[in-house]
Amino acid sequence: MTARLPGILPASAFLLLSLFSCGTPSSQSGQKNAPPPPSPIAEARQLLVVTADSWGDHLAVLRRFERSGPGAPWKALGKPFRVEIGRSGMGWGRGLHGAALDDGPVKREGDGRSPAGAFSLTEAFGYAPASQAGFIKLQYRRITPGMICVDDPLSKSYGRLVDPEKVSSHDWTSFERMSRPDDLYLWGVVVDHNRPDPKPGLGSCIFLHIWDGRMRGTSGCTSMPAEKLLALLTWLDRAKDPVLVQLPKPEYILLQEKWGLPEINL
Fold first, then answer.
1. Can you say whether the dihedral through the CA atoms of 137, 70, 243, 158 is positive or negative?
2. Where do the domains of the chain lie?
3. Model confidence over 204-223: pLDDT tens digits?
């Protein structure tokens, strides 16, 4: 029989203790499981939902919702109506939800896709002076004749509305004129995709604007009849943290409970 020194445990006991130690709950070791990420619409009291049948569809349906506060049930307002989205459909954008959430396509500059995900709506624009836009409760920017939106990923002004006469550096080679002869930007709302700190190449100059009626899809914006857009502009209120959610129907169903999205008849 092997002698054992007083106070020294056998090797088998050390092994047993180590096994129990490895099985100690993380809460006892001071480590806790990370909480689930908050819903990107958690604080919103106004919600626009745009759904398309699939990633590749360029026609979609817009619905409006409102609620009294965070956690309260959503109430549908008005009737759903048809809108146009990107001619190539949707791709994951960069917004309140973060970035791509699955293996679906990702929005890139010039790809003809509208951004999918959740996006703040904080700024409106139009040709009218501010004195004639008092009905708008978002931040309002008047479109001057020379104003552009820079879509050159190499420019320091990428993704921004710029009046070239008011900036010293003209480092862009590509841009979109905001004052158009077809008046598609007579009124509009800026979608906070890839802004305010844009990442080069992930898409820029995304708006809600008036459609041209040709139903061929847009370059990445969401367009609609003028009277529908004006109704949205009258309703949207920055104090109510409005959010745009754009998703293909299958992704909407997958994210409905996680994000706290309203139930809709798809």
1. positive
2. 46-259
3. 999 999 999 889 999 999 99
